[in-house]
Amino acid sequence: MSEYQYFEFQAVDWSLGEKQIEELRKYSGRAAITSTSFVNEYHYGDFKGDSLKWMQKYFDGFFYFANWGTRELFLRFPKAAIESKLIEQYCSGEVFDLVETDSHSIVCFSVDEIDSDQLWESDEGTLSDFLKLRSAVLENEDYRVFFKF
Q1: Which among 38, 82, 101, 102 could bridge 9 via Cys, Cβ 3.0 to 4.6 Å?
Q2: Alpha carbon of 68 to those of 5, 48, 52, 133: distances in Å?
Q3: 4, 96, 88, 93: which is closest to 42 by C-alpha?
Q4: Residue 30: which of 7, 53, 11 has the closest Cα?
Q5: In the predicted model, is pLDDT for residue 75 greater than 70?
Q6: Which value, in Å, is the radius of gyration of the alpha carbons in the chain?
Q7: Mean pLDDT, rounded, of the chain
Protein backbone atom coordinates (compact mmCIF):
# COMPACT_ATOMS: atom_id res chain seq x y z
CA MET A 1 0.00 0.00 0.00
CA SER A 2 1.44 3.36 -0.96
CA GLU A 3 1.66 6.36 1.31
CA TYR A 4 -0.83 9.19 0.89
CA GLN A 5 -0.90 12.59 2.58
CA TYR A 6 -3.22 15.51 1.88
CA PHE A 7 -2.49 19.09 3.02
CA GLU A 8 -4.93 21.96 2.66
CA PHE A 9 -4.55 25.52 3.96
CA GLN A 10 -7.07 28.34 3.47
CA ALA A 11 -7.02 32.06 4.18
CA VAL A 12 -10.43 33.51 5.01
CA ASP A 13 -9.83 36.89 6.59
CA TRP A 14 -7.37 38.13 3.99
CA SER A 15 -5.73 37.21 0.67
CA LEU A 16 -2.12 36.29 0.12
CA GLY A 17 -0.05 38.72 -1.90
CA GLU A 18 2.40 37.83 -4.65
CA LYS A 19 5.30 37.85 -2.18
CA GLN A 20 3.57 35.36 0.13
CA ILE A 21 2.65 33.11 -2.80
CA GLU A 22 6.29 33.15 -3.95
CA GLU A 23 7.38 32.21 -0.41
CA LEU A 24 4.97 29.25 -0.39
CA ARG A 25 5.99 28.16 -3.89
CA LYS A 26 9.53 27.54 -2.55
CA TYR A 27 8.07 24.63 -0.56
CA SER A 28 6.37 22.92 -3.49
CA GLY A 29 6.56 23.31 -7.23
CA ARG A 30 3.39 21.34 -7.85
CA ALA A 31 1.03 22.51 -5.09
CA ALA A 32 -2.15 24.32 -6.12
CA ILE A 33 -1.55 27.80 -4.68
CA THR A 34 -3.99 30.70 -4.96
CA SER A 35 -4.38 33.98 -3.12
CA THR A 36 -6.47 32.12 -0.52
CA SER A 37 -5.20 28.53 -0.49
CA PHE A 38 -2.39 26.00 -0.64
CA VAL A 39 -3.33 22.40 -1.49
CA ASN A 40 -1.00 19.48 -2.12
CA GLU A 41 -1.01 15.70 -2.08
CA TYR A 42 2.00 13.53 -1.43
CA HIS A 43 2.30 9.87 -2.38
CA TYR A 44 5.95 9.28 -1.61
CA GLY A 45 7.30 12.66 -0.53
CA ASP A 46 6.53 14.83 2.45
CA PHE A 47 5.49 18.39 3.24
CA LYS A 48 8.51 20.68 3.65
CA GLY A 49 6.78 23.46 5.58
CA ASP A 50 5.73 23.84 9.21
CA SER A 51 1.94 23.75 9.49
CA LEU A 52 1.75 25.73 12.71
CA LYS A 53 4.14 28.43 11.48
CA TRP A 54 2.16 28.73 8.26
CA MET A 55 -1.01 29.15 10.31
CA GLN A 56 0.65 31.87 12.36
CA LYS A 57 1.82 33.70 9.25
CA TYR A 58 -0.54 33.02 6.33
CA PHE A 59 -3.72 31.03 6.91
CA ASP A 60 -6.95 30.72 8.92
CA GLY A 61 -7.55 27.00 8.43
CA PHE A 62 -5.51 23.84 7.92
CA PHE A 63 -6.53 20.23 7.32
CA TYR A 64 -4.18 17.24 7.09
CA PHE A 65 -5.09 13.67 6.25
CA ALA A 66 -2.78 10.65 6.00
CA ASN A 67 -3.84 7.20 4.87
CA TRP A 68 -2.40 5.62 8.03
CA GLY A 69 -5.01 7.43 10.11
CA THR A 70 -3.50 10.73 11.24
CA ARG A 71 -5.80 13.75 10.97
CA GLU A 72 -5.08 17.36 11.93
CA LEU A 73 -7.33 20.41 11.89
CA PHE A 74 -6.15 23.90 12.85
CA LEU A 75 -8.45 26.92 13.02
CA ARG A 76 -7.05 30.42 13.56
CA PHE A 77 -9.12 33.12 15.23
CA PRO A 78 -8.37 36.81 15.80
CA LYS A 79 -7.47 36.95 19.47
CA ALA A 80 -9.76 39.91 20.15
CA ALA A 81 -12.75 38.08 18.62
CA ILE A 82 -12.86 35.02 20.90
CA GLU A 83 -12.46 34.07 24.52
CA SER A 84 -9.71 31.46 24.75
CA LYS A 85 -10.73 30.38 28.24
CA LEU A 86 -14.20 29.47 26.97
CA ILE A 87 -12.77 27.43 24.12
CA GLU A 88 -10.59 25.53 26.58
CA GLN A 89 -13.72 24.59 28.57
CA TYR A 90 -15.30 22.96 25.54
CA CYS A 91 -12.18 21.25 24.27
CA SER A 92 -10.40 18.73 26.40
CA GLY A 93 -8.42 15.57 26.06
CA GLU A 94 -5.34 14.56 24.18
CA VAL A 95 -6.51 15.76 20.79
CA PHE A 96 -6.80 19.47 21.60
CA ASP A 97 -4.25 22.25 21.93
CA LEU A 98 -4.59 26.02 21.93
CA VAL A 99 -1.66 28.05 20.62
CA GLU A 100 -1.71 31.79 21.23
CA THR A 101 0.26 34.46 19.42
CA ASP A 102 0.16 38.21 19.96
CA SER A 103 -2.74 38.58 17.53
CA HIS A 104 -4.34 35.15 17.11
CA SER A 105 -5.50 32.02 18.89
CA ILE A 106 -5.02 28.79 16.95
CA VAL A 107 -7.17 25.83 17.94
CA CYS A 108 -5.33 22.61 17.02
CA PHE A 109 -6.95 19.18 16.86
CA SER A 110 -4.76 16.17 16.15
CA VAL A 111 -5.66 12.49 16.09
CA ASP A 112 -3.24 9.67 15.28
CA GLU A 113 -4.12 6.30 13.86
CA ILE A 114 -7.90 6.39 13.90
CA ASP A 115 -10.07 3.89 12.11
CA SER A 116 -11.26 5.21 8.78
CA ASP A 117 -14.90 4.84 9.90
CA GLN A 118 -14.48 7.06 12.96
CA LEU A 119 -13.81 10.62 11.89
CA TRP A 120 -13.16 12.73 8.81
CA GLU A 121 -14.06 9.99 6.39
CA SER A 122 -13.34 12.03 3.28
CA ASP A 123 -9.76 12.76 2.38
CA GLU A 124 -10.47 15.96 0.44
CA GLY A 125 -12.61 19.05 0.52
CA THR A 126 -13.32 18.90 4.23
CA LEU A 127 -11.57 22.10 5.29
CA SER A 128 -14.35 24.26 3.84
CA ASP A 129 -16.88 22.49 6.07
CA PHE A 130 -14.71 23.01 9.14
CA LEU A 131 -14.27 26.67 8.28
CA LYS A 132 -18.06 26.98 8.63
CA LEU A 133 -17.55 26.03 12.29
CA ARG A 134 -15.00 28.81 12.57
CA SER A 135 -17.54 31.25 11.16
CA ALA A 136 -20.16 30.06 13.66
CA VAL A 137 -17.79 30.81 16.52
CA LEU A 138 -16.90 34.25 15.18
CA GLU A 139 -20.42 35.30 14.19
CA ASN A 140 -22.45 33.81 17.03
CA GLU A 141 -19.86 33.40 19.78
CA ASP A 142 -21.14 29.82 19.97
CA TYR A 143 -18.36 27.65 21.31
CA ARG A 144 -20.49 24.49 21.43
CA VAL A 145 -19.15 23.50 18.01
CA PHE A 146 -16.00 22.40 19.82
CA PHE A 147 -17.94 19.61 21.54
CA LYS A 148 -17.51 17.69 18.27
CA PHE A 149 -13.92 17.18 19.28
Answers
A1: 38
A2: 9, 19, 21, 26
A3: 4
A4: 7
A5: yes
A6: 15
A7: 86
> What is the pLDDT, as a whole number, of residue 115?
56
Residues 96-133 pLDDT 10s: 888 999 999 999 998 887 655 554 444 445 799 889 88
CA nearest neighbour of 60 among 133, 6, 110:
133
Q: How far is CA 128 from CA 37, 119, 135, in A?
A: 11, 16, 11
Of residues 39, 34, 31, 29, the one with CA closest to residue 16:
34
Judge whether 138 and 77 are in contact, CB under 8 Å.
Answer: yes
